[in-house]
Design a protein that fits this description.
This protein is an all-beta fold and 458 residues long. Helix content is 1%, strand content 61%.
């Protein structure tokens, strides 16, 4: 629950003044010379976060868990000036309670058998002059543009090269996939390549080939995936549309189209998405199917979303207001195959935001939801956000979710009502404090979560 950011001086022209009869004895003082930028600059941030979680239910005794998280992010060098740059991002957490907190608050970290848990998300060197206009990265890295997210210990080469008179961006990579919750890595492999081309104005087309091998609970798994994506941007920054599809081991896996359109003059924005899982997903490598080991097969479904947002200049309550409406739904190809994490449901919502209400530095949003998952549920939510001076702001909110995924326990919760408070204060440009408190209630339990976070940037 954590929520992480040439100046030209112009002097007016004036009539030329006569020179003084007597020149000054000393020349005007020049501004002190600015310190030179370091040859290999280092920037980053350090986050220290304390989490206190408490749960209560009729079935089990009260449980409590305290954890201290530390995040360090570093970047070294400048791609524009240095031949080699570096990037690092890691996390350490210590369980202040010791031992496992109990079934409702236990997390994957508690299975390690130690109060400390370390995780390395990113650690690589980037070489910028090996291939003209390209970049070679070696080390732990995350590939976001591949059809599925890939955490890789290996090498990635990104380089544009002319092909038949058209600029094509090539990406080639290889190494060992990193699974943070899996210790065994022997026999794991990830290799792939992608080509991106601009077929016409404001368009981009990408073709991916991925090969993954993984030794996991169900034995050796090998998968080959082909992915295709076409992106089209509208002129004048009015929006974009993107379509993609993948084939897994020769069979169609999924397909989707999503897009956004905006009209600044009307203060109107439209977002839409259509997606379908085309075939049943059984045991595959973790990148393609992370839940089969726990939930077994994932059945095909259709999913759609439409959101509209319209702003208005005047409001009887405040300075201006905004109306938002949306619909989201999932339909299973075979409704009899509904399971945890894969439900049929529809959600429709209408929200109104009044800016400058109940006072000038505050905004108030009220949301009404209608859920249909066999049973119909009507809910209301609200959010009040306000600035308390130049460096401080707070948010008070209440929201409802029919289904909620708990990232700590990796479980699905139903009928979750959340009440939360957030306070942020910036002591200086490089020092910020964040305090939050959340009370959650579902069909079975109640949770209280308090968080205090301090972030230092340099």
């Amino acid at each position: 629950m954590v929520l992480v950011f040439c100046c030209v001086l112009a002097r007016p022209l004036r009539a030329q003044e006569p020179e003084p009869a007597v020149q000054p004895e000393t020349e005007p003082q020049l501004p002190p010379p600015q310190p030179e930028a370091p040859a290999w600059p280092i920037h980053g941030s350090f986050i220290l976060r304390y989490d206190l979680r408490h749960s209560r239910s009729d079935a089990i005794d009260d449980e409590r868990d305290q954890d201290l998280y530390q995040y360090l992010s570093l970047t070294g060098g400048s791609a524009a000036r240095n031949a080699v740059t570096a990037s690092f991002y890691g996390r350490a957490v210590v369980d202040l309670e010791g031992g496992e907190p109990g079934p409702s608050l236990s997390s994957v970290e508690d299975t390690r058998g130690s109060a400390w848990d370390f995780r390395l998300y990113r650690a690589y060197l980037a070489f910028h002059r090996i291939v003209a206009d390209g970049e070679l990265r070696a080390g732990r890295q995350t590939l976001y543009d591949t059809p599925v997210l890939l955490n890789l210990d290996g090498v990635t080469l990104d380089t544009p090269a002319p092909v038949f008179g058209t600029d094509v961006t090539w990406q080639v990579y290889g190494g060992v996939p990193e699974h943070y919750w899996e210790d065994a890595r022997s026999g794991d492999l990830a290799v792939g390549a992608a080509a991106t081309v601009a077929p016409w104005s404001n368009a981009s087309a990408r073709l991916d080939l991925m090969h993954l091998e993984d030794r996991y609970l169900f034995g050796d798994q090998t998968n080959d995936l082909i992915g295709a994506r076409l992106d089209q941007a509208f002129r004048a920054g009015r929006g974009w549309v993107s379509g993609s599809t993948t084939w897994l081991d020769g069979d169609p896996r999924d397909a989707g189209v999503d897009g956004m359109w905006t009209d600044p003059e009307l203060d109107l924005q439209v977002n839409a998405r259509v997606y379908s899982l085309l075939t049943r997903q059984s045991v595959n490598t973790l990148e393609f199917d992370p839940f089969t080991a726990v939930l077994m097969d994932e059945e095909p479904y259709y999913e759609g979303m439409l959101m509209l947002s319209k702003g208005f200049d005047s409001s009887p309550l405040g300075e201006s207001w905004r109306a938002d409406a949306g619909a989201y739904g999932r339909i299973l190809r075979d409704s009899a195959q509904e399971s945890e994490f894969n439900h049929e449901f529809q959600r429709y919502w209408l929200a109104g935001t009044v800016e400058g209400f109940p006072w000038r530095a505050a905004d108030l949003t009220v949301t009404g939801d209608w859920w249909d998952a066999g049973d119909t549920v009507w809910t209301l939510g609200a959010e009040l956000s306000a600035e308390l001076g130049e460096d401080t702001d707070f948010v008070l909110a209440s929201a409802y979710s029919l289904y909620d995924y708990d990232f700590f326990t990796q479980e699905e919760r139903t009928h979750v009502r959340d009440y939360s408070a957030l306070l942020r204060h910036r002591f200086a440009e490089a020092l910020a404090l964040r305090l939050s408190l959340s009370f959650q209630e579902d069909d079975a339990e109640q949770y209280q979560i308090a968080t205090a976070q301090l972030e230092v940037s340099f």
